[in-house]
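ENCODED BACKBONE
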Amino acid sequence: MDNQSSKQEPPQKVIAVDVAKCIGCGLCVSTCPEVFELGGEDGKSHVKNARGCEQCNCQEAIDSCPARAISWQEMANSKS
């Protein structure tokens, strides 16, 4: 039997905020201050450090967002 192993890595996921849905409540900031911040002229949540998810529970921020504005998005692996 030929056991082929795929060298293709699964897509990486990155945290994202849909500012059109965000209501600016700040719950994500209190859950993961390493990742999210409220700011700008819109007063809504923005990702300031997507790699900060290694230091906090971004999934908890996703699950607790009342506007369902936070999600994981897949990024294509690029090796240039």
Q: What stands out?
A: Residues 1-6 have pLDDT under 50 and may be disordered. The longest strand covers residues 12-17.
